[in-house]
């Protein structure tokens, strides 16, 4: 029998953090040794003998948390947002001094969302037309969503690489906004609807056919499988890894 | 055995007109007695003994055609576009002088499109959120489509009638256009994609659920059942009828 | 200011019952005066002065509950399942002795589901083809779902009424099950997928076009607006009402 | 300026063949030098100096055509169906004697269909549940479609390779057929609807999320880009290539 991996969750009283703590507890081969919230000290991590820390806190807290973890050789899986080149450089600096420690930072832990982006990227060069529709609950403050913007950028890059011509907009008379937001030449449409959670559709069109890749996130538990995959993989990936896709397609 | 109804098609060399002529020929109970194009004289209609004329010509020609038909007691089913209140008033004037003649003018002969609008109208008052996505081939010059604009207006009217509050847009930071065109407070999004023909999705959202009504027009033959229904019904509807829905739901 | 309506919830510790109790508490014009569970006596209803009781209990308990409510002039809104003609006859008998009391029994309180069935029924006679796909989480024991079966029956009835010919199955060689279950001549397909909740798609096809009506239930709170509508309407509908649609389209 | 590639089409009076001939004529860098039908002799190919032949004929004719082409060093792109291991062995035998000649045989020339299968294969190991829905016009004789069966097999293989457990069917009481056809443990559902052409949806479900890959073929011209890609690539791929995917992802 293998000794279970000792895992801590930081931000364990938040909605996603609490779900992560429960998921770690329930996962075979993992042991939840600490569930920290704002008032807890980072020393609890070392006292508990944590091998991997899952950070689901706040942009204000995450850098301090990571500095401590890396200094103590605790691997980290980070879902907290707000990353800039400068902040990533700090993390890389700390990791240089602790070369066997691994940190995974991922803007999206949903496997379905990551696959959607990857497939969109792979399909883009084969189709004359590409547009993105993202649909979210009616409390979302940003439009388009970060995932949709990123997806459109990946499509635009793949089109450019394949030397596809730009998409001509045929509209000669229309209402402002009808053709969506322009993200690097790819139209992105944002629907806000009561009852929805987080959904995205990538549409490609060519001669006589269309290809649609749709991701539906129906519950915030959709992040859990990705977090658990990160927890299980991060110790074998020293240094900084950005994006869950690096672990998803590791063997390819 | 019933005598077949004698039908003429005007604009019979156009794509839709040619299809209409074939559909009339193939339809039980109908006989195609004349298929006119630009160079033909309207006298051919009376010479052929047409009882119903299907006009699929051009805004420049349709008024002359209708004046002739009505004057000779030939009922008409009209798919030609470009109607204004003034033009409709002319038709009503001619009909006043020929009270047993019927004219059906319809902006859309697709039964699926008409049902979509009707269901959207019926559903609107039950849902907090409503948006429209229309998707067309990438040669379409107007955005949103006329059908989508009309659908959004019908939804807005139904919401107002039910005293629903306006839809708040939650967006605080976004790209211009992301949230679509505003048609009477209902967001409308226009997708233009190679490979598509004409498609429309009406989305409603309420507590914990969504309702979607989607119409896909995959071939221009989708107008034929509506045209044939018009041909069969127009003689029993003296005066001007505007909109196929009046014949679709006649018995309700 | 109007006096709030005094509402009791029976089965208030179940998942749906608890949500219903919260919804009643939050709803303007309603007051939650009792939240009963198995161990509570029905006398609490009269003691609390309940005017309307919402029954979300169990087929074993509901008849007793209704007998008591009706005898005491308490209107009832019932989401509990398991109704047979015999059981409904009992309820009608009790109501005969209490003619001003109203009881609403509804197999489905989701407004989206009820609208889907109604629109399917209205659309059916216009299309040559009709099929139903229902998609649920992978713990559902019955296939097809009750709602899908009912929807298919309504479509079959509407087709028969319009004298549409039966749908020919073109399959000459195939695998067993590929073409779904046969419900009165309408194929019904049942998808079971982890991550889903309750979803249904009704597909109609005619010349060159299709019409799709899709209902997505993403959270069990989707029953709440229908329950609240029932609570607000039942006092004005003495006797037994079966099906939420009777209250939804009351004014039409 | 490059000399255009000299292309012949066999089966040029069939619907797909005629479209292929037009597409070759219109394509930059390609020249249509022969368009053969049943009554034409294969000698026309050599007389016309064809470098690549596109075979869109019939299982009865294709073997003779390929034997002639390979013997004369004419590369071939084959959309004709009916391949067995034995027939492929014959082609390989002829190619062994003409080692610089290339033959591409593809069961599906739609790029969207090939991408759908590939993405399904890549996604399968990440999701607990997988099902396939294919939707076709109501004249299709086989159910499920060949593409859907192949897609389900690829999913089943990927699941087995990743050691995923079999999908448990939760159904304890149901109607026969509701849960679709069983293709290696993956349920496949076949919808037949007037108005449709050829459509396929692959559904994956995991914790809190679903991923859907949908391919819509709206016109038979959807095969043309794949055929042209084959024509342009086959001369650089001596020997037998089976499946368009080998050319689509050549550089990966």
TrEMBL record, chains A, B, C, D:
- The entry's (S)-2,3,4,5-tetrahydrodipicolinate-binding residues are 137, 146-147
**Dihydrodipicolinate reductase C-terminal domain sequence ranges:** 112-248
Give EC number(s), comma-separated.
Answer: 1.17.1.8
Give binding positions for NADP(+).
38
- Enzyme class, spelled out: oxidoreductase
Q: Name one Pfam family in it.
A: DapB_C
Query: Which pathway does the record list?
Result: Amino-acid biosynthesis; L-lysine biosynthesis via DAP pathway; (S)-tetrahydrodipicolinate from L-aspartate: step 4/4
Keywords, comma-separated and alphabetical? Amino-acid biosynthesis, Cytoplasm, Diaminopimelate biosynthesis, Lysine biosynthesis, NAD, NADP, Oxidoreductase
Q: Which residues bind NAD(+)?
A: 11-16, 37, 79-81, 106-109
- Residues forming the Dihydrodipicolinate reductase N-terminal domain are 6-109
Q: What compartments host this protein?
A: Cytoplasm
CDD domains hit by this protein: DHDPR_N
- The active site lies at 136, 140
InterPro entries in the cross-refs: DapB_C, DapB_N, DapB_N_CS, DHDPR_bac, NAD(P)-bd_dom_sf
Give the chief site where it resides: cytoplasm
GO molecular function terms noted in the UniProt entry = 4-hydroxy-tetrahydrodipicolinate reductase
> What reaction gets catalysed by this protein?
(S)-2,3,4,5-tetrahydrodipicolinate + NAD(+) + H2O = (2S,4S)-4-hydroxy-2,3,4,5-tetrahydrodipicolinate + NADH + H(+); (S)-2,3,4,5-tetrahydrodipicolinate + NADP(+) + H2O = (2S,4S)-4-hydroxy-2,3,4,5-tetrahydrodipicolinate + NADPH + H(+)
Q: What residues form the membrane-spanning segments? A: none
Family that this chain belongs to? Belongs to the DapB family.
Q: How does it assemble?
A: Homotetramer.
> What job does this protein perform?
Catalyzes the conversion of 4-hydroxy-tetrahydrodipicolinate (HTPA) to tetrahydrodipicolinate.
Q: Which PANTHER family match?
A: 4-HYDROXY-TETRAHYDRODIPICOLINATE REDUCTASE 1, CHLOROPLASTIC-RELATED, DIHYDRODIPICOLINATE REDUCTASE
Its protein name is 4-hydroxy-tetrahydrodipicolinate reductase
């Amino acid at each position: 029998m293998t000794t279970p991996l000792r895992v801590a969750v930081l931000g364990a009283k938040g909605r996603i953090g609490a779900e992560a703590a429960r998921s770690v507890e329930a996962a075979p081969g993992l042991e939840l040794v600490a569930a920290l919230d704002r008032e807890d000290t980072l020393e609890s991590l070392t006292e508990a003998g944590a091998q991997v820390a899952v950070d689901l806190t706040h942009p204000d807290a995450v850098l301090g948390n990571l500095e401590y973890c890396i200094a103590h050789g605790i691997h980290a899986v980070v879902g907290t947002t707000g990353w800039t080149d400068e902040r990533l450089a700090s993390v890389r600096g700390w990791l240089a001094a602790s070369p066997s420690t691994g940190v995974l930072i991922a803007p999206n832990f949903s496997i379905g969302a990551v696959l959607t982006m990857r497939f969109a990227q792979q399909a883009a060069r084969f189709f004359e037309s590409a547009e993105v529709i993202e649909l979210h609950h009616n409390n979302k403050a940003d439009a388009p969503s970060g995932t949709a913007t990123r997806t459109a950028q990946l499509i635009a890059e793949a089109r450019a690489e394949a030397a596809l011509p730009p998409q001509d907009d045929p509209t000669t008379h229309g209402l402002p906004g009808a053709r969506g937001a322009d993200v690097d030449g790819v139209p992105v449409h944002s629907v806000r609807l009561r009852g929805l959670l987080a959904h995205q559709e990538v549409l490609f069109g060519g001669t006589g056919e269309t290809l649609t890749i749709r991701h539906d996130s129906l519950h915030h538990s959709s992040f859990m499988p990705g977090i658990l995959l990160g927890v299980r993989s991060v110790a074998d990936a020293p240094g900084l890894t950005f994006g869950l896709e690096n672990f998803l397609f590791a063997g390819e």
